[in-house]
UniProtKB/TrEMBL annotation:
Binds 2 Zn(2+) ions per subunit. Residues 439-759 form the Cobalamin-independent methionine synthase MetE C-terminal/archaeal domain. This is 5-methyltetrahydropteroyltriglutamate--homocysteine S-methyltransferase. Keywords: Amino-acid biosynthesis, Metal-binding, Methionine biosynthesis, Methyltransferase, Transferase, Zinc. One of its GO terms (molecular function) is zinc ion binding. Its cofactor is Zn(2+). L-homocysteine binds at I444, G445, S446, D612.
Amino acid sequence: MVQSAVLGFPRIGPNRELKKATEAYWNGKTSVEDLLKVGKEIREQNWKLQKQAGVDIIASNDFSFYDQVLDLSVLFNVIPERYTKYNLAQLDVLFAMGRGLQRKATDSEPAVDVTALEMVKWFDSNYHYVRPTFGKNLTFKLNGQKPVDEFLEAKALGIQTRPVLVGPVSYLHLGKADKDNLELDPISLLDQLLPLYTEILQKLAAAGATEVQLDEPTLVLDLPANVQAAVKKAYTYFGQQSGLPKITLASYFGTAVPNLDALKGLPVAGFHFDFVRAPEQINDVIAAIGANQTLSVGIVDGRNIWKNNFAKSTEFVNQAVAKLGADRVVVATSSSLLHTPVDLENEAKLNPELKNYFSFATQKLGEVVTIAKNVSGQDVSAALKANAEAIAARANSSFINDQAVKDRVASIDAKMSTRAAPFPQRLEEQKPVFKLPLFPTTTIGSFPQTKDIRINRNKFNKGQLSAEEYEKFINSEIERVIRFQEEIDLDVLVHGEPERNDMVQYFGEQLKGYAFTTNGWVQSYGSRYVRPPIIVGDLSRPKAMSVKESVYAQSITKKHVKGMLTGPITCLRWSFPRDDIDQQTQAYQLALALRDEVNDLEAAGIKIIQVDEPAIREGLPLRAGAERSAYQVWAAEAFRVATSGVSNKTQIHSHFCYSDLDPNHIKALDADVVSIEFSKKDDANYIAEFKDYPNHIGLGLFDIHSPRVPSKEEFISKIDTILKTYPAEKFWVNPDCGLKTRGWEETRLSLTHMVEAAKYFREQYKN
Ligand SMILES: [Zn+2]
């Protein structure tokens, strides 16, 4: 019998229950007991759902109040000293590490002011984990036993689960040394960490767990020899301990083949590999695993929403069964389902034809079960027939194909993707147009999305506000943001984006070829969820998407207002892409639609246009090699196709979130000005990497994920550090990212301090 397995289920609840409960707790509206209760209810619901669907192997400890990697940091006491001095409760320490905490003193409690830990993209997904940060005075020990508690919770419901933890090598390799401890290689901490893993695994076994899933997604990266050696060492060590559950070592998001030598001969019960992303690894993997070890075949996509093709998947799994036998094969999701929306049945408004092509987390449970049954020879003919019909219907659907779009993509040439003059000449032509001071100040685009904005948008969507009334409201919000920016004396203004629900969805809704969900939320980080639109067919722009708001904003101020667009790669990455054509083609389709929008903005008198590409880094293939080099070329070209139709005098900006950007890749975009997230990257080497970047750049000066307000002095010291390496004449002053998740009060204070700091440096550099 081939078993079915799910590597993890979304923890946000079918109606975003976790977000509501967490935010209510943060705002002091509910107690910690209320929050814990909601967590418990979600876990119970998820386990029962999987049990009812017939899934054989169900995960526990896939739940988290913030992030599963952060949970491990707390569990192992990898807590930098700054979080421990306030005697906060453990859950509050966890939240402080995830999002920072700033609290005024009360009669009973002292003031608290701590920044958050660095947050990093989880591989090439749009999920973010809180980076383990290893300081000098680290004492590894167990804080509580969350994995055991949640295992027991499921057991009490009569559901046997397979607890999942990020494995020791990935945990260390994804972490970093704290700035007081920079000589440390985190992987050297393995010897201290292994006994703690052993302790928690023994406790799980004692509680009744017969197997565990240890996730080692770093196995799909290019690993240095010492990390490969750490894999061997860690799992050999576990093999020597007594009283541990059986271990399934799981990798996902790519091929593990280059690291297979490290896996050969390890004393584990089995391995999981992602065959959605890397089907080509099947033969190497089968050859590498030992006699009696099981192979978990990740064949149901944990990262996308398309219906599985049962016939193809069955054929694929049968290759493994033929060689290993049914008892050694498991049919599984490719990764945790964390990256997919919870339930397609929540989509009452979706076009039924399209709905028939999709599968969300809840539907994917049925998919692993059906494929496992089919491979095992059980009768699932009705499900197979319906599936084959849906797959055939999608291929021939009129939603998918548009010949005019295909022809236009084929016509892209070098001229379309090159600005008329190189940057130095553009800069000279732009100077008299903009007359900007040294250290020009700006923001990234969005301003706080208040309750008022959401209420009015909802009313408009429900038809309770007319188009004129809504436009009047949006204009009043734009005016408020413009006046605010004039008042605090920013140099380059934005309209604040009150009309936008989301930076991708807003444009997607206006493009032909996109579909939308009403409830298809996916966790991005902490309590921030996104609702990725779905690219279903060839993409085109029926009419202008953003010109009206930008033109209104420019009409009410003498300062320059940036037009704000989302770039082709970000639109692609933050949507669920098609799986029937390559991503490059989808990026070019988006680039052409955006090119028309950029040109329309310019024609309407907007002289600075920012095309954001925050997702360009996460799209980078995880491994060095041909695929990565090709991506760097086509991603940059897509950006340039979108932005090269303008005159030399028009200033093109771009923005990137998250660190570890390759300056050469950014250079290839040839934007006049770029801004990057920087505030949590306190690393002189990183600044140095951008020293020779030829165009202008704004290194983000404050963390917009945190409500914390930096002082003017803090800004000055930060800029001072940067200017030790970075040339003043190229430097723009801006926050890390857009401000839409922040409140107005903290926004006002932070930006005021930032502008004051810029003015301080203007004085310093006067002649
Ligand atoms: Zn950003």
